[in-house]
Amino acid sequence: MIDFHCHLDLYQNALTLLPIVASRNLFTLVVTTSPRAWQATSQVFNGYKNIEIAVGLHPEIVGKKAGERELLLSCISKAKYVGEIGLDGSYRYKETIAMQESIMSDVLIECERGGGKILSIHSRNAAGRVLDLVEKHCQNSTAVLHWFSGTITEARRAKALGCWFSVGPAMLRGAKGRALLQELPKDRILPETDGPFATNHSTPLMPWEAITIADALADSWKTSKENVIFQLKQNLSTLIDGNSI
Ligand code: MN
Predict the structure, then answer these.
(1) Total-model pTM
(2) Cα of 167 to ligand 1 centre, how many Å?
(3) Which of 17, 84, 158, 170 has the most crowded CB, counting CB atoms within 10 A?
(4) Distance 129 CA to ligand 1 centre (A)
(5) How confident is the model over 37-94, as pLDDT tens digits?
(6) Is the peptide bond before 59 cis (omega within 30 degrees of 0)?
(7) Per the structure, how many domains does the chain have?
(8) Ligand 1 center to 192 CA (angstroms)
């Protein structure tokens, strides 16, 4: 129904999937891992009103793609959506963390200069640092924290800062993700897959499978699946159109 964070350009059969995703989903946000990928994907995926392409630079590849920093900043004024951006504080990316922070700051500043963007943000092992940057730089932009895996305290801080959350089946598979879900505001949650990276029994999640989180949400919110779906559609409308259905 809605997939607010997937890498549709990175599925093996992306071009075959494209029209299927457009017809099965109400809305899909395709995040890209570099501005060059955004340029190419925007051309190839052009023509589907309910598929938006976000320009990004994935924190895991900042080391390899540092040369695309200026290109990224110059593309922001042309994009409504920015992602995947963010920080990854995992041990294997520790050498690039300063560069990641510097790029993310510049991106957030550029987004403000453009009147504010909708951002899909990676924060693995770096939730506190990401929230520091969001607090400092995001006045007009809306930060959507994708696959949030911080602490309960960090989730509360993110909520207080006005962040949104995109939540997927992979996040809700574990007890930690389900406990975090209890802290997240119902009116600022959207489904995501993070496919093809996120999988179900080693098979990439498909963009139309994001909505399978509705069952876990219904349990958590103690309401019906129908009410959950209504709420998620309303959330999408609030975020992308700035008003409720
Ligand atoms: Mn991703």
Answers:
(1) 0.97
(2) 12
(3) 158
(4) 18
(5) 999 999 999 999 999 999 999 999 999 999 999 999 999 999 999 999 999 999 999 9
(6) no
(7) 1
(8) 9
